[in-house]
Every structure is written in structure tokens, then in C-alpha cells.
Amino acid sequence: MMGPPGSGKGTQGVQVATAHSVPHISSGAVLRAGAGPEVLSQMAAGELIDDETIAGLVWARLDEPDAAAGFVLDGFPRDVAQAGALDAFLQERGEALDAVVLLEAPREDLLQRMLARAEIEARPDDNPTTIARRLDVYETETEPLIARYAGQGVLRRVDGAGDPGEIAERLAGALNAGS
Ligand code: AMP
């Protein structure tokens, strides 16, 4: 699952995972559950944490038995180095990504959703300053992956505007169309 912060990767990723009976693996959730204070403060500032730290956590999670038959990965990879590392990791296991879903939504929708989520989840990085930084980091670090996955023929662009039920339908359609 790829897309800017607030695009619905988590909400939609859980649904796709449930529909396909595979685990939803969110790098952000893995970090929020177990990272130390230094990493948590980097997250609270909207900065990416270093590639080796996050990759080590993600590989460990992908090695768990429930991910053997497939998984929905949400929030990883987030930069070119992570994408290269993921390709190598999967290649070594004789696997490949079936699809990379890119959820796209207008910046105004993203801001509204993150501010609404702040009220409910109280995530320390859902505040206006950090949100702006996270959107910038997405543009500079993560957006370059779009061309990479388009080149690999696995990219599925999904309109992420509107309500979650409509988005889920479009997403399921995009996955079926590509399979
Ligand atoms: P998310 O839950 O995906 O919005 O991620 C929340 C925060 O966790 C991000 O803003 C980063 O600080 C950190 N994070 C999550 N995934 C990664 C990743 N793949 N690489 C680096 N930092 C990450």
C-alpha cells in the first residue's frame, strides 16, 4: 500500500488483508508498538527512521509464519533504498510483489483526515507542523517509487478521495483488473 500520509493506506490495507486472508503489516504500527524513545521522537517530528532499523523490523515480521502465504505491506518501502532492499529480500525467497496500490487524494482531503484522526487516536505526528513535514518527506523520498513500480508493471493507481466504502470498491476493482 503506497500513498501520502492520510491517504487511507491503513484503513484500506486492513480490508484488503482481510479479504485475502493475509496479515496487514504496517511499518508505522510496528514502530509505534515497540520503538525506543529516540525513534519515537523522530517519528513525532515526521522524519523517516533509518533504513536499516526499519528493514530489520519488517524482515522479522515477514518471516513470521502467518505471512508465509502472503501479506499486505503498508508504509514500507518508503524510499529508494528500502525498495531495493525489499526487491532483494523477496527475490531471495523466490517471491515478488503482486501489486503496488497507490492511493491518491487531494492534499486538502489528506489534511482533513489526519486532523480528524488526531482527535480519535491522538497520534503525536498528526499535528499541523508534522503533517506538513510528512507530506514533504513523502514527495521527496517516497514518490520516486511510483515510477519504479510502474516500470515493474505492478502499479495500481486508485482514486483515494471520498468515503472508505467507495475507495474499497475501486481498490478491489483495480486489483482484480490486474490479476
Ligand atoms: P505511518 O504509520 O506509515 O504513517 O508511519 C508513521 C511514521 O513511522 C513515519 O512518519 C516515520 O517516522 C515512521 N516510518 C514508518 N514506516 C517507515 C519506513 N518504511 N521508513 C522510515 N520510517 C518509517
Structure description:
The chain is globular. It is mainly alpha-helical. Helix content is 59%, strand content 9%. The mean pLDDT is 94. It contains nine helices and four strands. Bound molecules: adenosine monophosphate. Residues 5, 26-28, 31, 42-43, 46-49, 54, 75-76, 78, 82, 125, 134 line the site of adenosine monophosphate. The site of adenosine monophosphate has 18 residues, from helix 2 and helix 3.
Widest β-sheet, arrangement of strands: 1-2
Please state the structural category.
Answer: mainly alpha
Low-confidence stretches: none
Shape: globular
CATH hierarchy: architecture: 3-Layer(aba) Sandwich
Cα distance, first to last residue? 16 Å
| The CATH C-level class name | Alpha Beta
> How large is the radius of gyration?
16 Å
Q: Please tell me the overall pLDDT.
A: 94
Q: Order of SSEs, N→C?
A: HEHHHEHEHHHEH
Q: What small molecules does this complex bind?
A: adenosine monophosphate
Query: How many discrete domains?
Result: 1
Please give the number of β-strands.
4
Number of discrete helical segments:
9
So, the CATH homologous superfamily? P-loop containing nucleotide triphosphate hydrolases
CATH topology: Rossmann fold
Give helix % range.
55-70%
